[in-house]
Amino acid sequence: MENALTLIILFLILWFFWSGVRCKEIAVRAGQSHCDKHRVQFLDQTVQRVTLKFTRDSRNNPVWYRSYYFEFATNGEHRYQGKIVMHGQYLKSIEMDPYPDPTINTLN
C-alpha cells in the first residue's frame, strides 16, 4: 500500500512538471507568433513564468493559471514587455506594452 501511494505521488509530481514544460513551450510559440504578427522581434526566445495558481476556467473546471512575461523590441534598441496568460494548456490572452509602430518611418 505504501509503495502504491509513493508511486501515485511520484506520478503526480512528474505530471505536474511535464505539464509545466509543455505549457511553457506553448507560451513560447504563442509569443513568437504574436510578435511575428505585429512585426516586432521576440527577444531571448523564451518566456519567464511569474504566476502559478489553481483556479477555475469559464466552464468552472479546475485548471492551473500560469502567466509568463516575455520581451520584444521594435528595432533591437528598446525592450518592451509582454504577458501571456494560460489556463491549463490553453492560451487565454496575450498583452503587449505600448510600443512605436515599426512600419512607420519617422524623419527628424
Describe this structure in words.
With 108 residues, the chain is α+β, with helices and mostly antiparallel strands. It has one domain (2-96). Helices cover 33% and strands 41% of the residues. It is built from one helix and four strands. Strands 1-2-3-4 form a four-stranded antiparallel sheet, with helices on one face. The model has no long low-confidence stretch (mean pLDDT 92).
Span of the ends, CA to CA: 76 Å
List low-pLDDT spans. Answer: none
Shape descriptor:
elongated
Give the domain tally.
1
Q: What share of the residues lie within helices? A: 25-40%
Mean pLDDT: 92
Beta-strand percentage range = 35-45%
SS-derived structural category: alpha+beta
The largest pleated sheet is described as: 4 strands, antiparallel
Number of helices: 1
What string, H for helix and E for strand, traces the elements in order? HEEEE
Strand arrangement in the largest pleated sheet = 1-2-3-4
Count the E strands.
4
Gyration radius (Cα, Å) is 18 Å
